[in-house]
Write a structure and sequence with these properties.
By secondary structure, the chain is mostly helical. The protein has a domain of 89 residues: Orthogonal Bundle (Arc Repressor Mutant, subunit A), CATH 1.10.10. A three-stranded antiparallel beta sheet has the order 1-3-2. A hairpin with a 2-residue loop joins strand 2 and strand 3.
């Protein structure tokens, strides 16, 4: 699917911002949540809709948070995915691409909400650390 730039009218953006404030979310978090629900994506900004046959509700988000908190150095997206796969023993899962995508999306959501920060890049992977 080619990249698409979504143009949101100012009136709609104002309504989204007002709703986000009322719900106690950032505008980005609310938009991720709405788009996730609208298009049935396998994630949300809090990590609550990951592949359900492998993780309990919110478990993947908790694992990622702990991995980043326990690390003495920034971790790449690939490092985090590898550690999650190792911890849950999912090496042979046919759903690895979906799991990796969910991890990447959760990291993006955590970054958008200020829970983690980007500490640089290594090739195609972002490096993540606590804020």
């Amino acid at each position: 699917m080619p990249d698409t730039i979504l143009r949101i009218p100012d009136e709609l953006l104002s309504a989204i911002s007002a709703e986000a404030v009322e719900l106690g979310l950032s505008t980005n978090s609310l938009m991720i949540k709405v788009l996730s629900e609208r298009y049935s994506l396998p994630f949300d900004s809090a990590g609550n809709r990951t592949p359900n046959k492998y993780f309990q509700k919110g478990e993947l988000h908790q694992i990622i948070t702990k991995l980043i908190a326990d690390s003495n150095a920034p971790l790449s997206t690939g490092d985090i995915a590898g550690l999650v796969i190792q911890e849950k023993n999912l090496h042979d899962s046919p759903d690895l691409p979906s799991i990796r995508r969910s991890i990447s999306n959760i990291l993006s959501g955590m970054h958008a909400t200020g829970l983690i920060k980007k500490a640089g890049t290594t090739g195609r992977n972002n490096l993540w650390t606590n804020t």
